[in-house]
Design goal:
The protein has 156 residues and is α+β, with helices and mostly antiparallel strands. The chain is built from 5 helices and 4 strands; from the N terminus they run βαββαβααα. It is globular and about 45 Å long.
């Protein structure tokens, strides 16, 4: 789009269906590279990515010619197919429907990058459920608990 200028920073968070721990350290980097390629092919800029065993965080700078929903759909769908084709996960693997999308200013970007790249250390202190509910509260997002990601009593 000629003469269109923007700066839109979004953190996208989504989970593995059933919150299974299917993302293994042995192929995490390969998955990151694949997801990065999807984002680059969509002409968006990736600042940080980290896939935990049961969920993923992406931090992107987006242009207004693509929606967050479209980008997230393509990343989830294509990465799921990639993992299954390579037999890195069971055939039943999929990402849960839905996602969280949280916007940030440019001045916040370095902190968000640091936060995402340090996910393993962060989750030694806080569960994914606690983390996700904090995002929803921090950003003032109204939600119905029955439509959140699957969370289990072991995380309460």
């Amino acid at each position: 789009m000629a003469n269109t200028y923007s700066q839109i920073y979004i953190q996208i968070v989504f989970a593995v269906m059933g919150r299974q721990h299917f993302i293994k350290e042995s192929f995490r980097e390969e998955l990151h590279k694949y997801m990065t390629g999807i984002i680059i092919n969509k002409k968006q800029k990736l600042y940080a990515i980290y896939c935990m065993p049961d969920h993923a965080h992406l931090f992107v700078s987006m242009k207004p010619d693509i929606s967050i929903a479209e980008l997230t759909r393509d990343v989830k769908s294509n990465s799921s197919s990639f993992l299954k084709e390579r037999k890195l996960v069971p055939e039943t693997f999929s990402w849960q429907s839905g996602y969280g999308a949280f916007s940030y200013s440019k001045s916040q970007a370095p902190d968000v990058v640091n936060y995402i790249l340090n996910q393993p250390q962060h989750h030694q202190k806080k569960t994914f459920r606690e983390e996700y509910l904090e995002f929803l509260e921090k950003f003032g997002i109204d939600y119905d608990p029955k439509y959140l990601f699957e969370f289990y009593d072991s995380e309460l």
